[in-house]
Write a structure and sequence with these properties.
With 277 residues, this protein is an alpha/beta fold. The protein has one domain: 3-Layer(aba) Sandwich (Rossmann fold). Helix content is 44%, strand content 16%. It has 11 helices and 9 strands. It has helices at 3-31, 57-61, 77-89, 103-110, 133-137, 161-168, 174-183, 219-229, 242-245, 247-264, 266-276, and strands spanning 39-43, 66-70, 95-100, 116-122, 149-151, 156-159, 187-188, 206-211, 232-236. Strands 2-1-3-4-8-9 form a 6-stranded parallel β-sheet, sandwiched between helices. Strand 1, helix 2 (57-61) and strand 2 (66-70) form a beta-alpha-beta unit. Helix 3 (77-89) crosses helix 4 (103-110).
Length: 277
């Protein structure tokens, strides 16, 4: 082999090595891209249960997200926070918390768990430190739903069929309204007066769905809370049960929040830094 042939052979070998290295590095990056949050824990509100999320869950699962709906006992804020934290503890990795209505107060407290990296409020209350659902709502006009709330035994409250049909779920079909009336969970009146210790939204990114036709939580309050939290928000022309009447819009925002909150999770930042090195 002449010196010229040897030189050409060496160049070909080096080029092959470099191509292999680039391909290998690309394959590693593709196999281990920075991941968004995969675990979504959903918290229902008063007079409801986990089936509140029945239309949103399959949409999120179709995107490859792992979804768990908490079944709150609705006996006290502390009990509901404890139920939510048990669900968080079972998740493998970071968690995005989603709360509807009174469930917003639950995620505001439970969201201080170190696994939680983001919060999504769906037509929800978002009290600050030392506030309750009742106190944060006090400056706003009483919504129509509360004239249809009835006190029962041992301090628990229920909503009349009229309240469900006209003020809770007015944009849902009659058959769904009947099911909601039959399955509603009696809710302890005390949950609305229980105060938040530390509001998780002060230190964690938040998103908000504002229901502009809400007759259970004043839309003005939802907008004010979104501004206070500096939340990324959308407004949907919906009743209070926006996740049942407009599930796609709600699911889309949750998916966006999961991707964004996941990119900010320290584990993903560390992984990205390692790759850049």
């Amino acid at each position: 082999m002449t010196p010229s042939q040897a030189y050409q052979t060496a160049l070909i070998a080096i080029a092959g090595f470099l191509l292999t290295a680039v391909f290998h590095a690309g394959a590693i990056a593709q196999a281990n891209p920075p991941q968004g949050v995969r675990n979504i824990v959903m918290v229902h509100g008063a007079w409801a249960d986990g089936s509140s999320w029945s239309k949103v869950i399959p949409l999120l699962q179709a995107k490859g997200l792992h979804v768990v709906a908490v079944q709150n006992p609705l006996t006290s804020l502390a009990d509901d926070v404890a139920a939510t934290k048990r669900a968080i503890a079972l998740q493998d990795g970071p968690v995005l918390l989603v709360g509807h209505s009174y469930g917003g107060a639950v995620i505001t407290e439970a969201g201080n768990d170190p696994k939680v990296v983001g919060l999504v409020y769906v037509a929800a209350f978002a009290p600050s430190d030392g506030q309750s659902v009742a106190s944060v709502a006090k400056p706003f006009p009483q919504p129509p739903l509360f004239s249809e709330v009835r006190a029962g035994a041992e301090g628990f409250l229920t909503v009349t069929p009229k309240g469900v049909a006209e003020d809770f779920a007015q944009d849902l079909p009659g058959s769904e309204k009947q099911i909601l009336t039959a399955t509603q969970g009696s809710t302890a009146a005390a949950v609305f007066k229980a105060t938040i210790t530390i509001a998780a939204w002060k230190t964690k990114p938040s998103w908000s769905v504002i229901a502009s036709h809400d007759r259970a939580v004043p839309p003005e309050l939802e907008r004010a809370e979104a501004a206070a939290m500096n939340a990324t928000s959308i407004t949907v022309p919906s009743s209070h049960l926006v996740m049942l009447s407009h599930p796609k819009e709600v699911a889309d925002l949750i998916e966006q929040a999961a991707a964004k909150a996941g990119s900010q999770w320290p584990g993903n930042k560390m992984q990205s830094n390692l790759k850049s090195e």
